[in-house]
Amino acid sequence: MAARLTILASGSAGNSALVECDGERWLIDLGLEPKELDARLAKVDADWSQIRGVLVTHRHSDHWTPKSLSRCWTSRVPVFCHRDHAAAFRIGCPDFADLERGRLFRPFVGERSITISANWQCRPFRVRHDGGATFGFRFESPQSAFAYAADLGCWDRGLLERLIDVELLALEFNHDPDSLRQSRRPPWLVNRILGDEGHLSNAQACELVGEVLKQSSVDRLRQLVLLHISRECNSADLAAATARTALAQFGSEANVFAAEQQEPSPWFVIGESFAVDRVIQPVSLVQATLF
């Protein structure tokens, strides 16, 4: 019943992750162009021939590209997402009609679980974000669970319940509010990011993690992976330090890793502690200002 996760890319210039459960490999999001996505997969010893399905969080352009979605058709890989995503896909991707005709477009049915492997299920859960219907994912086996939530502006009890008793939590730590307000970004964008349908700040994410720890079994959370860190309004060091302080307040010894834009993360094994002795600094990159 082994499972593991690697973050192929995380940030406003493109997002994708690879999940492996019982040897079955699934992608979360397609926010990189095919050549770059192929390169990232190769770095973690994977390729498209091994992909059994793609889970799409939402329709913002840093989470899917037309050419990578077309790759799902040419590779005959099913795409699991919300029905509302289809309108954007039809406009942006000429091959999406073939995906639909080939029954490779698999809309979510509420929060009904998706079978990932013989022992693992994936349950989509809705989060608040201005990308239309937006989802995170909880992966469960009879013994283990982990979760992924990359874009959300706030959290509530419903979301908290979906994150309780996970061994690994990959969660957005997007920005530091003071840095955001002092940035050169226009006021409308600052307000958007700070809003309930924008992105989680370090402090908001830490509050959520604290509630997860309080509601979960003791020492259940072993790994915390920080996602979607803003290059301009945050840093890997600041986000990680904030997260470690929050964990320490609850006596948690969970490992913290800051995912980055330019390189895949290590493989995080579910059910085993993964020691990370450094935080990878994001490489300078022009970041899309809308996300």
Write up this protein.
This protein is an alpha/beta fold and 291 residues long. It has one domain (3-270): Metallo-beta-lactamase, Chain A (4-Layer Sandwich), CATH 3.60.15. It has helices spanning 34-43, 66-74, 85-92, 96-101, 157-163, 177-181, 187-194, 202-215, 236-249; strands at 3-9, 16-21, 24-28, 51-55, 79-81, 105-107, 114-115, 121-127, 134-140, 145-149, 168-172, 223-227, 255-258, 268-270. The strands form 2 sheets. The protein has a 7-stranded mixed β-sheet with strand order 6-5-4-3-2-1-14. Strands 7-8-9-10-11-12-13 form a 7-stranded mixed β-sheet, with helices on one face. Strand 8 and strand 9 form a beta hairpin. Helix 8 (202-215) packs parallel to helix 9 (236-249). It is globular and about 50 Å long. The model is unreliable at 273-291 (pLDDT under 50).
Number of continuous helical runs: 9
Strand order of the largest sheet: 6-5-4-3-2-1-14
From the N-terminal CA to the C-terminal CA, the straight-line distance is 36 Å
CATH hierarchy class name? Alpha Beta
Keywords:
291 residues, alpha/beta, Metallo-beta-lactamase, Chain A, seven-stranded mixed beta sheet, 9 helices, 14 strands, 28% helix
Please sum up the structure shown.
The protein has about 290 residues and is an alpha/beta fold.
Task: Furnish the topology, listing elements before pairings.
Elements: E1 3-9, E2 16-21, E3 24-28, H1 34-43, E4 51-55, H2 66-74, E5 79-81, H3 85-92, H4 96-101, E6 105-107, E7 114-115, E8 121-127, E9 134-140, E10 145-149, H5 157-163, E11 168-172, H6 177-181, H7 187-194, H8 202-215, E12 223-227, H9 236-249, E13 255-258, E14 268-270
Parallel strand pairs: 3-4, 4-5, 5-6, 10-11, 11-12, 12-13
Antiparallel strand pairs: 1-2, 1-14, 2-3, 7-8, 8-9, 9-10
